[in-house]
Design a protein that fits this description.
Length: about 550
């Protein structure tokens, strides 16, 4: 009886764990409504369905040559395909389809995706990481007059345009940074000198950050588009200080009622790039808020330590996809570990950034040529027919077991119910996706599970025919049938492992379901059915026969 209590407790715990694994959960997620991202409570069903059962999102990606011609597009697309596939795998979408079409396109199909905009951003983001030192020589300020003269000479914009707004802009930005006591003294002096209003179309739109950080300026968001046009003008680019680059900050800042965008002047040569990065993880810390912690390999760590050692007390810009994420002061030489501060971004943004950094930068820029939502690829009628076939098969198995084995058949049906519960819970627990081939593997698994009971029941019959008692016959039946059950399950498992290793898409889904079913068979149809027999024997100690 003690042994029976432990058996019943084990079954009860497994049932509770299975129900918990399959129970729908409400989670708070960022969703897009009317073009605006909001946080909402959504219900999640743990067991995912594949593209053939529920549809999803279809993306067509192609190489973006707007920033320059790509020499070998076919080779570049092959390398981009590997990066995109890695990102999708880490994104957590089960059973995706990522493949190249022709020599210029990549097709991505994601089943059951809930946030298509986020998925598109993750796939498309270049994720090119650089670390650059901000300019200490005031090179831009020294060239400001020349840049104004070029704009006036070329007639790109009227000389006095926006001049009246320049002084208030500087005052607002100055107020924003007045209380910042962490800036260096040399920066404060530079800020004081830079508050003199410029008179040209370029200088009136740019102000030195009043905190005095070297190489850091501010531009009103209202003027950003116009300033960006200047920075893409060929004459202006040719007149910029040699060996320097201008890059926008990733986030805007508020000063009073106006928004300003940081503009950084950086040394063109990066001290290190993201090619040495080996790992990246999101985190939340009390002071900086949301951050992404990264780790470099040994070679990258040596280079990073050597370069940052030369620039202690200088400002280093962390540049991702040509946007400055942050520009902290280098307090001491940095080795293989560092962090990227995400400012006001949430944890999900940090998770996405860490994901694309781990997957690596795209070798070429990609653009979305087409994005559509697709329905279930098999069609609702095919899905319904497949489900109906599975239901009919299960009902026939139940009918045959009950009619042929009577009471013992009922015990087998009870084990089959547990088999269904355990298998679905295992699939949900491992994040597997249920496809129509997976349903076929599921129904096949029911047949395999019942076959184990058939072997046991026939062996019990033989033992009873030899005149053994009911208890002895049941014990001997389970004992002697076990070798055949294990042999058949092992051979089936080896086949499923081969399908999983070398198959893709639906074939892999079939293999996963079959493997989960084999594990559930041993628990549900062997352990549980024997426990049912023991319960019956405990209530019928004087039983001289069993309905089998």
């Amino acid at each position: 009886m003690s042994n029976l209590k432990y058996r019943l407790l084990t079954i009860a715990l497994l049932v509770i764990a299975s129900v918990w694994a399959l129970y729908p959960r409400k989670v708070v997620e960022r969703v897009k409504r009317n073009g605006v991202f909001v946080f909402d409570t959504v219900t999640r069903v743990p067991l995912k369905r594949g593209l053939d059962l529920q549809g999803g999102m279809h993306l067509t990606l192609e190489i973006d040559e707007s920033k320059g011609t790509i020499a070998n597009k076919a080779e570049a697309l092959d390398r981009a395909l590997k990066v995109v596939r890695t990102r999708i795998d880490e994104f957590g979408v089960a059973e995706p389809i990522v493949q190249k079409v022709g020599n210029d396109r990549i097709i991505v199909e994601l089943p059951g995706i809930d946030d298509p905009d986020r998925a598109t951003e993750v796939v498309q983001k270049s994720a090119f990481l650089q670390f650059q030192i901000t300019d200490k020589t005031q090179a831009l300020e020294k060239n400001m007059g020349r840049l104004d003269a070029i704009l006036k000479e070329k007639g790109i914009i009227a000389a006095n345009r926006a001049a009246s707004a320049a002084a208030p802009a500087k005052s607002a930005v100055s107020n924003l940074f007045t209380n910042d006591t962490t800036k260096k003294a040399r920066g404060d002096n530079a800020a004081a000198d830079s508050t003199k209003a410029g008179s040209g179309p370029f200088s009136t739109k740019i102000v030195k950050a009043p905190g005095g950080d070297p190489g850091q300026y501010m531009v009103a968001e209202a003027d950003r588009e116009e300033m960006d046009a200047y920075l893409h003008n060929a004459d202006i680019l040719a007149a910029l200080p040699p060996g320097k680059q201008l890059k926008w900050g990733a986030d805007s800042l508020m000063a009073g009622q106006k928004a300003y965008r940081p503009l950084y002047v950086l040394d063109a040569r990066p001290i290190i790039t993201g090619e040495y990065l080996t790992d990246a993880k999101p985190n939340t810390v009390p002071v900086e808020g949301t951050i992404v912690e990264f780790q470099l390999n040994n070679e990258g760590g040596r280079r990073f330590k050597a370069e940052t050692g030369k620039h202690v007390r200088d400002y280093m810009a962390i540049v991702l996809d040509d946007k400055v994420m942050s520009a902290p002061v280098i307090q001491s030489a940095i080795g293989t570990r560092g962090q990227i501060t995400m400012a006001g971004s949430g944890l999900q943004a940090a998770q996405d950034l860490a994901l694309v950094l781990r997957a690596g930068a795209l070798p070429v820029p990609l653009k979305v040529a087409d994005r559509v939502s697709i329905g279930a690829s098999l069609g609702q009628d095919s899905i319904q027919k497949g489900i109906n076939a599975g239901v009919v098969a299960i009902m026939l198995v139940v009918l045959i077991m009950v009619v042929y084995y009577r009471f013992s058949g009922l015990l087998a049906v009870g084990g089959m119910v547990l088999y269904v519960l355990y298998t679905l819970a295992a699939l949900a627990g491992f994040g597997a996706t249920l496809t129509l081939p997976g349903l076929a593997g599921f129904v096949l698994g029911i047949g395999i599970a019942v076959d184990a009971n058939v072997l046991i029941f026939e062996r019990i019959r033989e033992e009873l025919d030899h005149g053994k008692s009911v208890r002895t016959a049941i014990d001997e039946g389970f004992k002697h049938a076990m070798s055949a059950i294990i042999d058949s399950n092992v051979s089936t498992a080896l086949t499923a492992l081969v399908l999983y290793q070398y198959g893709t898409g639906p074939v892999k889904g079939f293999a996963v379901t079959l493997l989960a079913g084999l594990a559930a068979t041993m628990v549900a149809c062997v352990f549980s059915v024997r426990t049912f027999y023991l319960v019956w024997l405990s209530r019928n100690r004087a039983a001289e026969s069993v309905s089998i």
